[in-house]
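ok new one. same drill as before - C-alpha coordinates go in, u give me an amino acid for every spot. 613 of them this time. try not to just spam alanines like last time pls lmao
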Protein backbone atom coordinates (compact mmCIF):
# COMPACT_ATOMS: atom_id res chain seq x y z
CA UNK A 1 0.00 0.00 0.00
CA UNK A 2 2.86 2.34 0.83
CA UNK A 3 4.68 1.59 -2.44
CA UNK A 4 1.47 2.21 -4.39
CA UNK A 5 1.12 5.60 -2.68
CA UNK A 6 4.73 6.51 -3.54
CA UNK A 7 4.18 5.43 -7.15
CA UNK A 8 1.00 7.47 -7.42
CA UNK A 9 2.73 10.64 -6.18
CA UNK A 10 5.66 10.18 -8.52
CA UNK A 11 3.50 9.46 -11.54
CA UNK A 12 1.17 12.37 -10.87
CA UNK A 13 4.13 14.73 -10.53
CA UNK A 14 6.20 13.58 -13.45
CA UNK A 15 3.65 12.01 -15.83
CA UNK A 16 5.84 8.95 -16.45
CA UNK A 17 3.16 6.71 -17.99
CA UNK A 18 5.55 4.12 -19.47
CA UNK A 19 6.72 3.20 -15.95
CA UNK A 20 3.20 2.07 -15.00
CA UNK A 21 3.48 -0.70 -17.51
CA UNK A 22 6.94 -1.55 -16.24
CA UNK A 23 5.58 -2.03 -12.74
CA UNK A 24 2.68 -4.21 -13.78
CA UNK A 25 4.54 -6.45 -16.23
CA UNK A 26 7.90 -8.20 -16.32
CA UNK A 27 10.41 -5.57 -17.54
CA UNK A 28 11.68 -5.85 -21.07
CA UNK A 29 14.89 -4.29 -22.33
CA UNK A 30 12.90 -1.37 -23.73
CA UNK A 31 10.96 -0.95 -20.51
CA UNK A 32 14.15 -1.13 -18.44
CA UNK A 33 15.66 1.59 -20.58
CA UNK A 34 12.57 3.77 -20.10
CA UNK A 35 12.55 3.10 -16.37
CA UNK A 36 16.23 4.00 -16.12
CA UNK A 37 15.74 7.30 -17.96
CA UNK A 38 12.71 8.18 -15.86
CA UNK A 39 14.56 7.51 -12.58
CA UNK A 40 17.50 9.61 -13.73
CA UNK A 41 15.12 12.46 -14.56
CA UNK A 42 13.39 12.18 -11.18
CA UNK A 43 16.74 12.13 -9.34
CA UNK A 44 17.78 15.24 -11.27
CA UNK A 45 14.86 17.18 -9.76
CA UNK A 46 14.91 15.55 -6.30
CA UNK A 47 15.35 18.29 -3.68
CA UNK A 48 14.48 16.73 -0.31
CA UNK A 49 15.18 13.64 1.77
CA UNK A 50 11.53 12.46 1.76
CA UNK A 51 11.57 12.49 -2.04
CA UNK A 52 14.86 10.60 -2.02
CA UNK A 53 13.38 7.84 0.17
CA UNK A 54 10.43 7.60 -2.23
CA UNK A 55 12.81 7.23 -5.13
CA UNK A 56 14.70 4.57 -3.18
CA UNK A 57 11.54 2.46 -3.04
CA UNK A 58 10.85 3.24 -6.68
CA UNK A 59 14.33 2.02 -7.75
CA UNK A 60 13.86 -1.25 -5.87
CA UNK A 61 10.40 -1.84 -7.35
CA UNK A 62 11.66 -1.26 -10.89
CA UNK A 63 14.52 -3.70 -10.44
CA UNK A 64 17.20 -1.06 -10.90
CA UNK A 65 19.04 -1.93 -7.70
CA UNK A 66 22.22 -2.77 -9.62
CA UNK A 67 21.94 -0.26 -12.44
CA UNK A 68 25.27 1.65 -12.43
CA UNK A 69 23.87 4.90 -13.87
CA UNK A 70 20.91 5.02 -11.48
CA UNK A 71 22.90 4.05 -8.38
CA UNK A 72 25.65 6.58 -9.09
CA UNK A 73 23.10 9.34 -9.68
CA UNK A 74 21.22 8.31 -6.52
CA UNK A 75 24.46 8.59 -4.53
CA UNK A 76 25.29 11.98 -6.06
CA UNK A 77 21.81 13.29 -5.26
CA UNK A 78 22.07 12.00 -1.69
CA UNK A 79 25.41 13.79 -1.37
CA UNK A 80 23.83 17.07 -2.48
CA UNK A 81 21.11 16.57 0.16
CA UNK A 82 23.69 15.85 2.90
CA UNK A 83 22.39 12.29 3.14
CA UNK A 84 25.43 10.35 1.98
CA UNK A 85 25.13 7.95 4.90
CA UNK A 86 21.67 6.95 3.69
CA UNK A 87 23.01 6.29 0.18
CA UNK A 88 26.04 4.36 1.45
CA UNK A 89 23.84 2.01 3.45
CA UNK A 90 21.84 1.35 0.29
CA UNK A 91 24.73 0.99 -2.17
CA UNK A 92 27.37 -0.89 -0.17
CA UNK A 93 25.50 -3.98 1.04
CA UNK A 94 26.39 -7.64 0.91
CA UNK A 95 23.83 -8.37 -1.81
CA UNK A 96 25.01 -5.54 -4.11
CA UNK A 97 26.50 -6.36 -7.49
CA UNK A 98 30.11 -5.22 -7.08
CA UNK A 99 30.35 -4.73 -10.84
CA UNK A 100 28.54 -1.40 -10.38
CA UNK A 101 31.41 -0.13 -8.20
CA UNK A 102 33.35 2.27 -10.40
CA UNK A 103 35.69 5.20 -9.86
CA UNK A 104 32.99 7.83 -10.28
CA UNK A 105 30.77 6.17 -7.66
CA UNK A 106 33.57 5.99 -5.10
CA UNK A 107 34.65 9.56 -5.85
CA UNK A 108 31.10 10.74 -5.16
CA UNK A 109 31.00 8.96 -1.80
CA UNK A 110 34.54 9.95 -0.74
CA UNK A 111 33.96 13.60 -1.71
CA UNK A 112 30.72 13.79 0.28
CA UNK A 113 32.30 12.38 3.43
CA UNK A 114 35.44 14.54 3.01
CA UNK A 115 33.36 17.72 2.87
CA UNK A 116 31.51 17.01 6.13
CA UNK A 117 33.40 17.90 9.30
CA UNK A 118 32.48 14.90 11.45
CA UNK A 119 32.60 12.14 8.80
CA UNK A 120 36.04 12.59 7.25
CA UNK A 121 37.20 9.23 8.61
CA UNK A 122 34.49 7.61 6.44
CA UNK A 123 36.09 9.16 3.35
CA UNK A 124 39.32 7.31 4.15
CA UNK A 125 37.35 4.12 4.90
CA UNK A 126 35.66 4.13 1.50
CA UNK A 127 38.98 4.89 -0.18
CA UNK A 128 40.25 1.64 1.35
CA UNK A 129 37.08 -0.16 0.18
CA UNK A 130 37.75 1.24 -3.28
CA UNK A 131 41.23 -0.28 -3.31
CA UNK A 132 39.95 -3.60 -1.90
CA UNK A 133 37.56 -3.88 -4.86
CA UNK A 134 40.43 -3.11 -7.26
CA UNK A 135 38.76 0.08 -8.44
CA UNK A 136 41.52 2.37 -9.69
CA UNK A 137 41.55 5.93 -8.22
CA UNK A 138 41.97 8.83 -10.61
CA UNK A 139 43.30 12.38 -10.24
CA UNK A 140 39.96 13.50 -8.79
CA UNK A 141 40.01 10.86 -6.04
CA UNK A 142 43.12 12.03 -4.24
CA UNK A 143 42.22 15.67 -3.51
CA UNK A 144 39.13 14.36 -1.65
CA UNK A 145 41.10 11.70 0.26
CA UNK A 146 43.88 14.16 1.15
CA UNK A 147 41.32 16.71 2.32
CA UNK A 148 39.90 14.04 4.63
CA UNK A 149 43.40 13.25 5.97
CA UNK A 150 43.86 16.98 6.63
CA UNK A 151 40.60 17.10 8.57
CA UNK A 152 41.56 14.07 10.63
CA UNK A 153 45.02 15.51 11.21
CA UNK A 154 46.79 12.17 10.78
CA UNK A 155 50.29 12.66 9.39
CA UNK A 156 50.96 8.91 9.03
CA UNK A 157 47.73 8.40 7.13
CA UNK A 158 48.58 11.35 4.89
CA UNK A 159 52.03 9.90 4.17
CA UNK A 160 50.46 6.57 3.17
CA UNK A 161 48.12 8.30 0.74
CA UNK A 162 51.06 10.35 -0.56
CA UNK A 163 52.85 7.07 -1.29
CA UNK A 164 49.84 5.82 -3.26
CA UNK A 165 49.74 9.08 -5.22
CA UNK A 166 53.36 8.63 -6.27
CA UNK A 167 52.89 4.93 -7.04
CA UNK A 168 49.88 5.51 -9.30
CA UNK A 169 51.49 8.55 -10.91
CA UNK A 170 49.38 11.56 -9.94
CA UNK A 171 52.13 13.32 -7.97
CA UNK A 172 52.66 15.82 -10.82
CA UNK A 173 49.00 16.86 -11.00
CA UNK A 174 48.68 20.49 -9.81
CA UNK A 175 45.37 19.98 -7.99
CA UNK A 176 46.68 16.89 -6.19
CA UNK A 177 49.89 18.74 -5.25
CA UNK A 178 47.94 21.70 -3.88
CA UNK A 179 45.84 19.43 -1.68
CA UNK A 180 48.99 17.61 -0.59
CA UNK A 181 50.48 20.88 0.63
CA UNK A 182 47.24 21.66 2.50
CA UNK A 183 47.20 18.19 4.04
CA UNK A 184 50.74 18.39 5.40
CA UNK A 185 50.13 21.91 6.74
CA UNK A 186 47.04 20.66 8.56
CA UNK A 187 48.85 17.80 10.31
CA UNK A 188 50.70 19.90 12.92
CA UNK A 189 54.42 19.06 12.62
CA UNK A 190 54.17 18.00 8.95
CA UNK A 191 54.99 21.40 7.65
CA UNK A 192 58.47 20.61 6.35
CA UNK A 193 56.93 17.96 4.08
CA UNK A 194 54.49 20.58 2.80
CA UNK A 195 57.36 22.90 1.91
CA UNK A 196 59.21 20.06 0.16
CA UNK A 197 56.17 19.31 -1.98
CA UNK A 198 55.66 23.02 -2.65
CA UNK A 199 59.30 23.66 -3.62
CA UNK A 200 59.30 20.67 -6.01
CA UNK A 201 56.19 21.81 -7.88
CA UNK A 202 57.16 22.75 -11.45
CA UNK A 203 54.19 25.12 -11.68
CA UNK A 204 52.51 26.96 -8.78
CA UNK A 205 49.23 28.85 -8.96
CA UNK A 206 47.55 31.13 -6.41
CA UNK A 207 46.02 28.06 -4.74
CA UNK A 208 49.47 26.53 -4.20
CA UNK A 209 50.89 29.71 -2.68
CA UNK A 210 47.77 30.26 -0.56
CA UNK A 211 47.93 26.71 0.81
CA UNK A 212 51.56 27.08 1.91
CA UNK A 213 51.18 30.64 3.24
CA UNK A 214 47.98 29.65 5.05
CA UNK A 215 49.72 26.64 6.58
CA UNK A 216 52.51 28.79 7.97
CA UNK A 217 49.98 31.30 9.33
CA UNK A 218 47.85 28.62 11.05
CA UNK A 219 50.91 27.09 12.69
CA UNK A 220 52.06 30.44 14.07
CA UNK A 221 55.03 30.60 11.67
CA UNK A 222 54.03 34.11 10.70
CA UNK A 223 57.47 35.35 9.65
CA UNK A 224 57.72 32.44 7.18
CA UNK A 225 54.22 33.27 5.90
CA UNK A 226 55.19 36.90 5.22
CA UNK A 227 58.50 35.93 3.57
CA UNK A 228 56.74 33.44 1.30
CA UNK A 229 54.14 36.05 0.38
CA UNK A 230 56.95 38.37 -0.72
CA UNK A 231 58.35 35.55 -2.85
CA UNK A 232 54.90 35.10 -4.36
CA UNK A 233 54.89 38.75 -5.41
CA UNK A 234 58.32 38.42 -7.00
CA UNK A 235 57.18 35.31 -8.89
CA UNK A 236 54.36 37.31 -10.50
CA UNK A 237 51.50 35.13 -9.23
CA UNK A 238 48.49 37.28 -8.36
CA UNK A 239 47.19 36.59 -4.85
CA UNK A 240 43.48 36.01 -4.32
CA UNK A 241 41.30 36.83 -1.31
CA UNK A 242 42.24 33.56 0.40
CA UNK A 243 45.91 34.48 0.20
CA UNK A 244 45.23 37.93 1.61
CA UNK A 245 43.26 36.51 4.55
CA UNK A 246 46.24 34.29 5.44
CA UNK A 247 48.71 37.16 5.12
CA UNK A 248 46.51 39.35 7.31
CA UNK A 249 46.44 36.57 9.90
CA UNK A 250 50.25 36.57 9.90
CA UNK A 251 50.30 40.38 10.22
CA UNK A 252 47.94 40.11 13.19
CA UNK A 253 50.18 37.58 14.90
CA UNK A 254 53.30 39.68 14.33
CA UNK A 255 51.67 43.00 15.14
CA UNK A 256 52.90 44.16 11.73
CA UNK A 257 50.62 47.15 11.24
CA UNK A 258 52.52 48.69 8.32
CA UNK A 259 52.47 45.45 6.37
CA UNK A 260 48.77 45.11 7.19
CA UNK A 261 48.15 48.61 5.82
CA UNK A 262 50.00 47.64 2.65
CA UNK A 263 47.80 44.54 2.29
CA UNK A 264 44.71 46.73 2.54
CA UNK A 265 45.98 49.13 -0.12
CA UNK A 266 46.98 46.19 -2.33
CA UNK A 267 43.48 44.72 -2.18
CA UNK A 268 42.09 48.09 -3.21
CA UNK A 269 44.59 48.60 -6.05
CA UNK A 270 44.25 45.07 -7.45
CA UNK A 271 40.50 45.04 -6.89
CA UNK A 272 40.68 41.80 -4.92
CA UNK A 273 37.17 40.64 -4.08
CA UNK A 274 36.30 41.92 -0.60
CA UNK A 275 34.43 38.97 0.83
CA UNK A 276 33.02 39.05 4.34
CA UNK A 277 35.95 36.89 5.44
CA UNK A 278 38.48 39.35 4.03
CA UNK A 279 36.70 42.36 5.58
CA UNK A 280 36.59 40.58 8.95
CA UNK A 281 40.30 39.73 8.65
CA UNK A 282 41.09 43.41 8.01
CA UNK A 283 39.04 44.49 11.03
CA UNK A 284 40.76 41.90 13.21
CA UNK A 285 44.21 42.89 11.95
CA UNK A 286 43.77 46.61 12.58
CA UNK A 287 42.26 46.01 16.01
CA UNK A 288 45.04 43.63 17.10
CA UNK A 289 47.86 45.63 15.52
CA UNK A 290 47.00 48.79 17.43
CA UNK A 291 44.67 50.87 15.22
CA UNK A 292 41.28 50.03 16.68
CA UNK A 293 39.75 53.26 15.34
CA UNK A 294 40.54 52.15 11.79
CA UNK A 295 39.01 48.74 12.59
CA UNK A 296 35.85 50.48 13.75
CA UNK A 297 35.68 52.59 10.57
CA UNK A 298 35.98 49.48 8.40
CA UNK A 299 33.26 47.84 10.45
CA UNK A 300 30.94 50.82 10.02
CA UNK A 301 31.48 50.76 6.25
CA UNK A 302 30.52 47.09 5.88
CA UNK A 303 27.24 46.54 4.04
CA UNK A 304 26.62 43.14 5.61
CA UNK A 305 27.90 42.33 9.08
CA UNK A 306 28.20 38.83 10.49
CA UNK A 307 28.51 37.77 14.11
CA UNK A 308 32.28 37.52 13.43
CA UNK A 309 32.33 41.19 12.39
CA UNK A 310 30.62 42.29 15.59
CA UNK A 311 32.75 40.03 17.76
CA UNK A 312 35.97 41.34 16.16
CA UNK A 313 35.24 44.96 17.10
CA UNK A 314 34.03 44.02 20.59
CA UNK A 315 37.23 42.02 21.20
CA UNK A 316 39.26 44.86 19.68
CA UNK A 317 37.76 47.36 22.10
CA UNK A 318 38.45 44.91 24.94
CA UNK A 319 42.14 44.63 24.03
CA UNK A 320 42.48 48.41 24.02
CA UNK A 321 40.82 48.79 27.41
CA UNK A 322 37.76 50.52 25.98
CA UNK A 323 35.29 48.45 27.92
CA UNK A 324 32.36 50.87 27.91
CA UNK A 325 32.55 51.16 24.12
CA UNK A 326 32.65 47.37 23.86
CA UNK A 327 29.51 47.14 26.00
CA UNK A 328 27.84 49.79 23.84
CA UNK A 329 28.70 47.87 20.66
CA UNK A 330 27.35 44.66 22.18
CA UNK A 331 24.05 46.36 22.98
CA UNK A 332 23.99 47.83 19.44
CA UNK A 333 24.53 44.32 18.07
CA UNK A 334 21.50 43.05 19.97
CA UNK A 335 19.46 46.01 18.76
CA UNK A 336 20.39 45.12 15.16
CA UNK A 337 18.79 41.71 15.65
CA UNK A 338 22.09 39.82 15.79
CA UNK A 339 21.96 37.00 18.34
CA UNK A 340 25.30 36.76 20.20
CA UNK A 341 27.09 33.44 20.33
CA UNK A 342 29.37 32.09 23.03
CA UNK A 343 32.48 33.68 21.44
CA UNK A 344 30.85 37.12 21.42
CA UNK A 345 30.09 36.70 25.13
CA UNK A 346 33.73 35.82 25.80
CA UNK A 347 34.78 39.03 24.02
CA UNK A 348 32.31 41.04 26.08
CA UNK A 349 33.40 39.52 29.41
CA UNK A 350 37.03 40.12 28.43
CA UNK A 351 36.19 43.78 27.78
CA UNK A 352 34.63 44.07 31.23
CA UNK A 353 37.69 42.41 32.75
CA UNK A 354 40.24 44.74 31.12
CA UNK A 355 38.29 47.83 32.13
CA UNK A 356 37.36 46.84 35.68
CA UNK A 357 33.63 46.69 34.90
CA UNK A 358 32.88 44.13 37.60
CA UNK A 359 29.13 44.72 37.98
CA UNK A 360 28.60 44.76 34.22
CA UNK A 361 30.55 41.52 33.89
CA UNK A 362 28.47 39.84 36.57
CA UNK A 363 25.27 41.02 34.88
CA UNK A 364 26.21 39.70 31.44
CA UNK A 365 27.51 36.40 32.81
CA UNK A 366 24.27 35.79 34.67
CA UNK A 367 22.20 36.72 31.60
CA UNK A 368 23.95 34.30 29.24
CA UNK A 369 21.63 31.38 29.79
CA UNK A 370 18.50 33.38 30.60
CA UNK A 371 18.60 35.81 27.66
CA UNK A 372 20.52 33.91 24.98
CA UNK A 373 20.24 30.24 25.93
CA UNK A 374 24.04 29.91 26.11
CA UNK A 375 25.34 27.45 28.70
CA UNK A 376 28.61 28.85 30.14
CA UNK A 377 31.74 27.00 29.06
CA UNK A 378 35.09 26.84 30.81
CA UNK A 379 36.21 29.94 28.87
CA UNK A 380 33.31 31.99 30.27
CA UNK A 381 34.13 30.90 33.81
CA UNK A 382 37.77 31.77 33.12
CA UNK A 383 36.75 35.29 32.07
CA UNK A 384 34.86 35.77 35.33
CA UNK A 385 37.81 34.56 37.41
CA UNK A 386 40.04 36.95 35.47
CA UNK A 387 37.54 39.80 36.00
CA UNK A 388 37.42 39.28 39.77
CA UNK A 389 41.18 38.69 40.03
CA UNK A 390 42.12 41.87 38.16
CA UNK A 391 39.79 43.83 40.40
CA UNK A 392 41.65 42.53 43.45
CA UNK A 393 38.71 40.38 44.62
CA UNK A 394 40.88 37.31 45.14
CA UNK A 395 38.79 35.66 47.88
CA UNK A 396 35.61 36.14 45.84
CA UNK A 397 37.36 34.70 42.79
CA UNK A 398 38.38 31.64 44.82
CA UNK A 399 34.80 31.16 46.07
CA UNK A 400 33.57 31.48 42.49
CA UNK A 401 35.98 28.73 41.38
CA UNK A 402 34.95 26.45 44.24
CA UNK A 403 31.27 26.78 43.25
CA UNK A 404 31.81 26.16 39.52
CA UNK A 405 29.62 23.30 38.18
CA UNK A 406 32.48 22.12 35.98
CA UNK A 407 36.04 21.25 36.90
CA UNK A 408 38.28 24.35 36.71
CA UNK A 409 41.20 23.98 34.31
CA UNK A 410 44.83 24.83 34.94
CA UNK A 411 44.51 28.26 33.27
CA UNK A 412 41.93 29.29 35.87
CA UNK A 413 44.18 28.17 38.73
CA UNK A 414 47.14 30.06 37.23
CA UNK A 415 45.00 33.19 36.94
CA UNK A 416 44.17 32.91 40.64
CA UNK A 417 47.80 32.34 41.63
CA UNK A 418 48.94 35.39 39.67
CA UNK A 419 46.26 37.45 41.39
CA UNK A 420 47.47 36.18 44.75
CA UNK A 421 51.01 37.38 43.99
CA UNK A 422 49.89 40.78 42.71
CA UNK A 423 47.51 41.38 45.62
CA UNK A 424 49.71 40.09 48.43
CA UNK A 425 47.79 36.86 49.15
CA UNK A 426 51.12 35.03 49.15
CA UNK A 427 50.30 32.11 51.47
CA UNK A 428 47.22 31.28 49.43
CA UNK A 429 49.25 31.60 46.25
CA UNK A 430 51.89 29.22 47.63
CA UNK A 431 49.25 26.64 48.57
CA UNK A 432 47.52 26.79 45.18
CA UNK A 433 50.85 26.61 43.32
CA UNK A 434 51.89 23.47 45.18
CA UNK A 435 48.56 21.84 44.39
CA UNK A 436 48.93 22.80 40.73
CA UNK A 437 52.39 21.19 40.60
CA UNK A 438 51.01 17.98 42.13
CA UNK A 439 48.28 17.88 39.45
CA UNK A 440 50.50 18.94 36.56
CA UNK A 441 54.12 18.07 37.46
CA UNK A 442 55.60 18.57 33.98
CA UNK A 443 54.31 22.06 33.19
CA UNK A 444 57.11 24.59 33.64
CA UNK A 445 54.84 27.62 34.22
CA UNK A 446 53.56 26.08 37.48
CA UNK A 447 57.09 26.09 38.90
CA UNK A 448 57.67 29.62 37.65
CA UNK A 449 54.53 30.78 39.49
CA UNK A 450 55.71 29.21 42.75
CA UNK A 451 59.22 30.59 42.22
CA UNK A 452 57.79 34.08 41.77
CA UNK A 453 55.68 33.71 44.90
CA UNK A 454 58.82 32.81 46.90
CA UNK A 455 60.68 35.77 45.38
CA UNK A 456 57.87 38.10 46.45
CA UNK A 457 58.16 36.62 49.97
CA UNK A 458 61.99 37.05 49.81
CA UNK A 459 62.38 33.32 50.47
CA UNK A 460 65.40 33.00 48.20
CA UNK A 461 66.45 29.55 49.33
CA UNK A 462 63.10 28.03 48.36
CA UNK A 463 63.12 29.95 45.11
CA UNK A 464 66.54 28.52 44.28
CA UNK A 465 65.29 25.02 45.09
CA UNK A 466 62.40 25.42 42.65
CA UNK A 467 64.77 26.57 39.91
CA UNK A 468 67.02 23.56 40.57
CA UNK A 469 64.04 21.20 40.28
CA UNK A 470 63.16 22.82 36.96
CA UNK A 471 66.70 22.31 35.67
CA UNK A 472 66.68 18.63 36.67
CA UNK A 473 63.41 18.15 34.80
CA UNK A 474 64.79 19.94 31.75
CA UNK A 475 62.39 22.88 32.11
CA UNK A 476 63.09 26.54 31.54
CA UNK A 477 61.11 29.74 31.80
CA UNK A 478 59.74 31.14 28.54
CA UNK A 479 62.02 34.11 27.78
CA UNK A 480 60.42 37.50 27.35
CA UNK A 481 60.75 38.84 23.81
CA UNK A 482 59.64 42.02 22.06
CA UNK A 483 59.15 42.59 18.33
CA UNK A 484 59.12 45.84 16.41
CA UNK A 485 58.34 46.46 12.73
CA UNK A 486 60.58 48.99 10.98
CA UNK A 487 61.10 49.48 7.23
CA UNK A 488 59.13 46.35 6.36
CA UNK A 489 61.31 44.23 8.62
CA UNK A 490 60.53 42.56 11.93
CA UNK A 491 63.21 42.96 14.64
CA UNK A 492 63.00 40.78 17.74
CA UNK A 493 64.77 41.37 21.07
CA UNK A 494 65.12 39.27 24.21
CA UNK A 495 66.30 40.41 27.63
CA UNK A 496 70.01 41.25 27.60
CA UNK A 497 70.11 40.71 23.82
CA UNK A 498 73.46 41.41 22.14
CA UNK A 499 72.81 39.59 18.85
CA UNK A 500 71.58 42.62 16.94
CA UNK A 501 74.17 44.11 14.59
CA UNK A 502 73.63 47.53 16.21
CA UNK A 503 73.62 46.34 19.81
CA UNK A 504 76.39 48.76 20.87
CA UNK A 505 74.40 51.80 19.73
CA UNK A 506 71.27 50.33 21.34
CA UNK A 507 72.99 49.95 24.71
CA UNK A 508 74.35 53.47 24.49
CA UNK A 509 70.80 54.67 23.94
CA UNK A 510 69.68 52.56 26.93
CA UNK A 511 72.19 54.34 29.12
CA UNK A 512 71.00 57.72 27.86
CA UNK A 513 67.37 56.76 28.50
CA UNK A 514 68.27 55.64 32.04
CA UNK A 515 70.02 58.92 32.87
CA UNK A 516 67.19 61.08 31.52
CA UNK A 517 64.51 59.00 33.29
CA UNK A 518 66.23 59.25 36.65
CA UNK A 519 66.52 63.03 36.28
CA UNK A 520 62.77 63.05 35.55
CA UNK A 521 62.01 61.16 38.79
CA UNK A 522 61.87 57.54 37.62
CA UNK A 523 62.52 54.98 40.37
CA UNK A 524 63.06 51.36 39.21
CA UNK A 525 60.56 48.83 40.55
CA UNK A 526 63.14 46.32 41.74
CA UNK A 527 60.54 44.11 43.41
CA UNK A 528 59.87 42.80 39.90
CA UNK A 529 63.37 41.27 39.78
CA UNK A 530 63.01 37.92 41.48
CA UNK A 531 66.71 37.45 42.25
CA UNK A 532 68.66 37.63 45.51
CA UNK A 533 71.12 40.27 44.26
CA UNK A 534 72.07 43.86 45.15
CA UNK A 535 69.67 46.67 44.22
CA UNK A 536 72.14 48.10 41.72
CA UNK A 537 72.32 44.77 39.91
CA UNK A 538 68.54 44.54 39.94
CA UNK A 539 68.31 47.94 38.25
CA UNK A 540 70.78 46.78 35.63
CA UNK A 541 68.70 43.64 34.98
CA UNK A 542 65.55 45.72 34.58
CA UNK A 543 67.30 48.10 32.20
CA UNK A 544 67.92 45.24 29.77
CA UNK A 545 64.34 43.97 29.49
CA UNK A 546 63.36 43.26 25.90
CA UNK A 547 60.81 46.09 25.56
CA UNK A 548 63.36 48.68 26.66
CA UNK A 549 65.80 47.36 24.04
CA UNK A 550 63.11 47.59 21.34
CA UNK A 551 62.18 51.14 22.38
CA UNK A 552 65.86 52.17 22.39
CA UNK A 553 66.21 50.76 18.87
CA UNK A 554 63.11 52.64 17.73
CA UNK A 555 64.43 55.92 19.18
CA UNK A 556 67.61 55.42 17.18
CA UNK A 557 65.95 54.47 13.89
CA UNK A 558 62.80 56.60 13.64
CA UNK A 559 62.30 60.37 13.21
CA UNK A 560 61.63 62.44 16.37
CA UNK A 561 57.98 62.68 17.34
CA UNK A 562 56.80 59.61 15.40
CA UNK A 563 54.85 56.85 17.20
CA UNK A 564 56.60 53.68 18.37
CA UNK A 565 54.76 50.34 18.23
CA UNK A 566 56.12 47.22 19.93
CA UNK A 567 54.73 43.78 20.72
CA UNK A 568 55.71 41.66 23.75
CA UNK A 569 55.01 37.93 24.12
CA UNK A 570 54.40 38.16 27.89
CA UNK A 571 52.48 40.47 30.20
CA UNK A 572 54.32 43.79 30.54
CA UNK A 573 56.02 44.08 33.92
CA UNK A 574 55.35 46.93 36.34
CA UNK A 575 58.80 48.48 35.91
CA UNK A 576 58.70 48.50 32.10
CA UNK A 577 55.20 49.98 32.24
CA UNK A 578 56.47 52.78 34.48
CA UNK A 579 59.58 53.34 32.37
CA UNK A 580 57.57 53.51 29.16
CA UNK A 581 55.46 56.33 30.59
CA UNK A 582 58.60 58.32 31.45
CA UNK A 583 60.15 57.68 28.01
CA UNK A 584 56.99 58.85 26.23
CA UNK A 585 57.14 62.18 28.01
CA UNK A 586 60.91 62.70 27.82
CA UNK A 587 61.17 61.95 24.09
CA UNK A 588 57.71 63.26 23.13
CA UNK A 589 56.66 59.92 21.64
CA UNK A 590 53.41 57.99 21.60
CA UNK A 591 54.36 54.41 22.47
CA UNK A 592 51.90 51.60 21.73
CA UNK A 593 52.68 48.36 23.56
CA UNK A 594 50.80 45.15 22.80
CA UNK A 595 51.49 42.54 25.45
CA UNK A 596 50.03 39.05 25.82
CA UNK A 597 46.72 40.36 27.10
CA UNK A 598 46.05 43.87 25.84
CA UNK A 599 47.25 47.20 24.42
CA UNK A 600 48.84 50.07 26.30
CA UNK A 601 48.68 53.44 24.53
CA UNK A 602 51.26 55.60 26.33
CA UNK A 603 51.50 59.32 25.63
CA UNK A 604 52.85 62.30 27.58
CA UNK A 605 53.54 60.14 30.64
CA UNK A 606 50.06 58.60 30.81
CA UNK A 607 48.78 55.16 29.79
CA UNK A 608 45.36 54.32 28.38
CA UNK A 609 45.04 51.44 30.86
CA UNK A 610 45.06 53.94 33.76
CA UNK A 611 47.52 51.55 35.46
CA UNK A 612 44.86 48.82 35.54
CA UNK A 613 46.13 45.79 33.67
Amino acid sequence: MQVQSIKAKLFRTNNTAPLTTALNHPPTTVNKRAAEQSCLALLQTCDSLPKLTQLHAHILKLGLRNNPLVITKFTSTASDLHAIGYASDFVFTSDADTRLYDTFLFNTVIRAYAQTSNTKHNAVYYYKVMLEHSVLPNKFTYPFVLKACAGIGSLNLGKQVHGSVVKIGFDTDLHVQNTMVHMYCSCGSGVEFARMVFDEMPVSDSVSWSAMIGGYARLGMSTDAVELFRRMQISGVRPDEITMVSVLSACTDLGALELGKWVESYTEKEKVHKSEELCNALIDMFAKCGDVNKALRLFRNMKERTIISWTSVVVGMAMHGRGLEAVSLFEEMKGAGMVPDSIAIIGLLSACSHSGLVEEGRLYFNSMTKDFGIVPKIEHYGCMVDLLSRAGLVKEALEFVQKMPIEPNQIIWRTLITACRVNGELNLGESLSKQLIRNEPMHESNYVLLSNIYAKMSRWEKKTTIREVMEKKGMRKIPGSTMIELDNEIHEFVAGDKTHNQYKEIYEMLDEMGRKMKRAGYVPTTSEVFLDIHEEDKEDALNRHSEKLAIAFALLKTPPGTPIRIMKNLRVCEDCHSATKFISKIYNREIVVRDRNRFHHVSNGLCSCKDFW
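Residues 1-26, 532-538 have pLDDT under 50 and may be disordered. and btw Residues 29-45 form the longest helix (17 residues).
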